[in-house]
Amino acid sequence: MIHLFIYAFAAALTGISIYYLLTRYFLYLAGPSKVTMKVFDELPQPVFFFDEKGLIRYCNTYSQKVLGFKQKDILDLPMETLFRKEDALKALTKQTSLAGAAGPEKLYLRSVDGSGICFNLSFAELKGALGDYYGMLVYGEDVQEAEKLKAELERREINERNLKAMSNSLEEVVANRTEELTRSIGEARREMNYRLIKEKELRATIEDMEIMLGEIHSRQKKNMKLILNMLNAKKWRRTSKAQQHKTGILYHRLKAIHMVYEHVFFQDHREYVDFQTFIFDLTDKFHAMYCDDKSIEISLSAEEHSLQVDQAFPLGLSLSEIMHVAFKAAMFGRKSNNNTPKISVKYAFSQLHNRYNLEINVSGDTKYLPEQILADNHSGLQLAKMLIGDQLNGKISIFTQHAFSIQISFAKLKESLAWQLN
Questions:
Q1: Among 11, 83, 4, which Cα is nearest to 40's?
Q2: Which CATH code fits 43-142?
Q3: Whole-structure pTM over 0.70, yes or no?
Q4: What confidence tens digit (pLDDT) does each residue in 21-58 have?
């Protein structure tokens, strides 16, 4: 009868048909031991049989495969050998003896390497027709995959909560940043509108100042022309030679200043001056003033280099005073030896030292240059030294022993300083 009960229980576990059960039962009649074990070995879940003494009498193929040992290695061993927690095992066996069955409960079976494998196990008593106790049948299912799935679900749930919290935090950050950017854009627009208004007002003011400056320059030009005409008329009056000489010096000096003023301020770009063109024009006009017959040879060598107005104006005034002395020295040299004197002007910029160099040489016998020439132009040379030393922070050297020569050197004005001065 115990074998019939085992067959019925196996049929309930596997869901096999009554036909299959009867077939197996009749096979049991032929060889009960082998048929019973074959049925249990086909089950895809753990099955154990413990006798009335609690010793292991059978474990199916699935159990051996999962736990990693062979049946012969554990036969006749106590049932506690398979379980990791003896307290839980005792509680279930006690409940089984009282109620005839217990479970399912999660229990950990001990594998061959000593680790625990979780199963959902049920316990059932095996009794004969007369109530004789034969032992205990333990069966169940492997819940490792379910545990893994549960752990994965819990992990995903935690990740989902974290992502949701992060999303809420990011949404809050984005909302705050959007509000901040909106406020900043509003402030930037107000600032831009304010600056546009101020820029418009500034442009209007600059235009008014340009008109006023143009009017001032125009009047200044007319006044200087008027003064020059008055000096020119006075020069031809019947006065003493000394007075005519002083008037002529003053006339030429004002004429040179007028040339500098006209070249620097009456141009399209007032920040920079094409000083090469200025040197050529200034030399030509001095040449025309002193010798209409072109009896003085001129040699010009000037690089194409723009000079800032803050340096061009004092250098132009200094150059006009120096050119007075140079042409007078050349005229004296021509009268002394009847040779054609030569005035050479060299203007260059040294990229290595970031400095401008200007040199004026007068060839010919000028070593006996009369002191009167230097004395008449003493105030002009002093003005040139002051302008070059104070405003250009440069150096001027005058040589008169063997030949008349003047050398000027000054540093290039920095852009930041030029901007501050403007």
A1: 11
A2: 3.30.450.20
A3: no
A4: 433 443 343 334 555 677 777 888 888 888 888 888 88
